């Protein structure tokens, strides 16, 4: 908070000093500043403030209210403040309302919070100037097959899901990837979620000969499957999706695999961690991706100074950031899928070796 106040105070001082002393770069930060999402908005503000600390950029922080009306109002304020790029946004309603106004003004947006596929899938039709550090909703589906098929090619694996839309999508994505790779799961099934036990499912898995299983389900169901497999003295490697990171009532078994974006702090080197420590900012939630989005915005602004637009720079550039090199595809999504395979060590998920 102290760092953010300093950054905002500096921005105000520069604005009052007159046009000849104005900041060369002006970055908008948009998020729901009040209400239940304000904690996440503060993470975005902290990340952007730290990223601009060593530059002459001014931060313009605007509340979008996480609503269509708020997003439209925020866009108009950002245009009036003559920002050159915008980072942030948590809510689909707000960013979709803001983008037509910002695009018309030639102001690109780099979101660190909105994952909905439609945001970038409509890029060609809408012409919206939007890029994102946040992975798309499809990124998890693609990662499941891309990661597990090479790893389990020589294993007897099964695929089960809990019948929910998301669980079934994950399972189907892996099944299709296996089919394309010429592989056949030894067992496919749908189980009843939120049951006290999954002994019947585990028994069917053991009879199929499966040594590995991907579960499209939530954290507690996966914990129960692992518990019941251990109770039957059945050695079973279990993998799941990002839901394993959610809070649960039951302990996860050590060795459980998760396909997810690693914790941001685990992706930072020692120098980057020292920056956060010195600023008294915990690199959690949206702090780090918004820092990276702001880094990209500043570098794109620098490229545009030599000729071209900021949007051209974003579309064509490759930017070195705290998270490593970042580039975008033709839709504005990350060219490299950030999902990785992680393994639970009994306390936390760490990169799978």
TrEMBL record:
Name of the protein described by the UniProt record: ABC transporter substrate-binding protein
GO biological process: amino acid transport
Family: Belongs to the leucine-binding protein family.
Swiss-Prot/TrEMBL keywords: Amino-acid transport, Signal, Transport
Endpoints of the signal sequence: 1-22
Domain of life: Bacteria
InterPro entries: BCAA_transport, Leu-bd, Peripla_BP_I
């Amino acid at each position: 908070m102290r760092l953010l106040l300093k950054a905002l105070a500096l921005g105000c001082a520069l604005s009052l000093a007159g046009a000849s002393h104005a900041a060369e770069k002006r970055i908008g930060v948009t998020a729901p500043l009040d209400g239940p999402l304000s904690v996440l908005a503060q993470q975005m503000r902290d990340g952007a403030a730290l990223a601009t600390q060593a530059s002459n950029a001014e931060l313009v922080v605007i509340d979008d209210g996480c609503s269509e009306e708020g997003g439209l109002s925020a866009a108009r304020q950002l245009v009036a403040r003559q920002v050159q790029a915008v980072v942030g946004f948590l809510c689909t309603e707000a960013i979709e309302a803001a983008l037509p106004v910002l695009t018309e003004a030639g102001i690109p947006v780099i979101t660190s919070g909105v994952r909905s596929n439609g945001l970038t899938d409509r890029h060609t039709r809408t012409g919206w100037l939007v890029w994102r550090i946040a992975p798309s909703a499809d990124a998890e589906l693609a990662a499941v097959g891309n990661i597990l098929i090479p790893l389990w090619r020589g294993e007897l694996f099964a695929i089960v899901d809990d019948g929910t839309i998301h669980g079934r999508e994950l399972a189907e994505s892996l099944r299709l990837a296996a089919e394309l790779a010429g592989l056949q799961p030894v067992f496919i099934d749908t189980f009843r979620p939120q049951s006290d036990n999954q002994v019947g499912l585990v028994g069917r898995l053991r009879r199929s000969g499966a040594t590995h299983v991907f579960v499209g389900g939530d954290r507690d169901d996966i914990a129960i499957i692992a518990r019941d497999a251990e109770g039957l003295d059945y050695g079973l490697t279990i993998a799941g999706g990002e839901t394993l990171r959610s809070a649960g009532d039951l302990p996860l078994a050590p060795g459980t695999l998760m396909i997810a974006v690693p914790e941001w702090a685990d992706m930072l080197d020692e120098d980057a961690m020292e920056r956060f420590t010195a600023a008294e900012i915990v690199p959690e939630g949206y702090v780090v991706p918004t820092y990276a989005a702001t880094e990209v915005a500043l570098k794109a602004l620098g490229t545009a100074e030599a000729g071209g637009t900021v949007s051209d720079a974003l579309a064509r550039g490759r930017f070195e950031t705290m998270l490593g090199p970042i580039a975008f595809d033709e839709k504005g999504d990350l060219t490299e899928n950030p999902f990785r395979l992680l393994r639970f060590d009994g306390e936390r998920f760490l990169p799978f070796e």
